[in-house]
Specification:
single chain, Rossmann fold, 2 domains, 6-stranded parallel sheet, 26% strand, binds NADP nicotinamide-adenine-dinucleotide phosphate
């Protein structure tokens, strides 16, 4: 039976996703959000007031030095994920880091090695993987027969011009922001890592990809097609097999979902992906469960993202070794 212990969480970066994470966190029995850190103390204070967080820090370093914090959630732009994770692990904190952890496989290896050597939990925050609708989708997958292809899309229309997603210096870009979900979904459905990828991108004036399309070929010969970007609205995950098709309508956010198997609608339970993710990693930190996502998944993500970007830059397919 789970204990009544709680992991004491600190939030690094009081931005949009940190606020979304906390929307339902109060109902997680094993979670106490005790601190928030910002580069600006007033921003941390405003966030703390909004979510009833008792401890306020005017720098990330101060939060990482707080002995009342067991674990940190990193909700900063992409380029800060790895350096902040390394600092947090060095300070003895468990880490839930926003996606994508990194596009550099060697950074993933360095971070998970550091976590393992300190007996700390590190997880990449692909919240979509924690939902009951994804579990149901994977249970139903055998119904399509032998898999022939996978289609994964995630696009939205970017209206802001100063968004961190458009900043090349912060590792923005469509593949980093939304395409990484398509990579995650394709790898999950395929149950394997791609052996060859090719990508085509449209780069905007700030130097980041505004859209990207890619093909991931898996060792079995199965091919996944991914489409992601900031210029249209679309999101779905579809598995196409010899016996039929299985479609998850809103795979990544799970807000407007439902599963369709052939011409049949399948009922799914909806739940808050972010709270489920926090509960999962908190249970792992308390020694009461396993993190859903670990080193292998984060490494598969980084290797595929890196290969897609290399292919898009050169126009040539990129092979991924065993
Ligand atoms: N899982 C999901 O559903 C999901 C959804 C959206 C975003 N994300 C991920 O979450 C991360 C943050 O995205 P967001 O939409 O929350 O961004 P955001 O609203 O712009 O917030 C980012 C936060 O990071 C901090 N920060 C540190 N250095 C910064 C810099 N140089 N420029 C701008 N902000 C900086 C800021 O806090 P202070 O300056 O106050 O310290 C800011 O509040 C990204 O990695 C993104 O991929 C995940």
């Amino acid at each position: 039976m789970p204990s009544s212990r709680k992991v004491r969480w600190g939030i690094l970066g009081p931005g949009g996703i940190s606020a979304r994470l906390l929307r339902d966190a109060g109902s997680a029995a094993n979670v106490a959000v005790v601190a928030v850190g910002s580069r600006d103390r007033a921003r941390a204070a405003a966030f703390a007031a909004r979510f009833g967080i008792p401890r306020i820090h005017g720098s990330y370093e101060a939060l990482l030095g707080d002995p009342e914090v067991d674990a940190v959630y990193i909700g900063t732009p992409n380029s800060l994920h790895h350096p902040l994770t390394m600092q947090a692990l060095a300070a003895g904190k468990h880490v839930l880091c926003e996606k994508p952890y990194s596009r550099h496989p060697e950074q993933v290896v360095e971070a998970f090695d550091a976590a393992a050597s300190r007996k700390l939990i590190l997880m990449e925050a692909f919240m979509w993987r924690h939902t009951p609708q994804v579990r149901r989708f994977m249970e139903l997958l055998p119904e399509v027969g032998e898999l022939q292809s996978i289609r994964a899309t995630f696009s939205f229309v970017m209206t802001k011009t100063n968004d961190v997603r458009l900043d090349a210096g912060l590792d923005g870009g469509a593949l980093m922001d939304v395409g990484c979900y398509c990579v995650s979904g394709s790898r999950l459905v395929a149950g394997a890592e791609p052996s060859r990828v090719s990508g085509e991108q449209v780069v905007g004036p700030t130097g980041v990809d505004l859209s990207i399309s890619g093909l991931l070929r898996f060792p079995s010969g199965l091919v996944a097609e991914i489409v992601a970007g900031f210029t249209s609205h679309h999101r779905q995950l579809e598995a196409i097999g010899t016996a039929g098709t299985l479609l998850l309508r809103d795979p990544w956010l799970g807000e407007d979902g439902g599963i369709r198997l052939g011409d049949r609608d399948i009922a799914v339970t909806s739940d808050d992906a972010y709270r489920l993710e926090l509960e999962n990693i908190s249970a792992a930190i308390l020694g009461e469960g396993q993190p859903l996502l670990g080193r292998d998944d984060a490494l598969g993500q980084a290797r595929t993202i890196d290969a897609l970007y290399r292919s898009a830059a050169t126009g040539a397919a990129v092979s991924l070794g065993a």
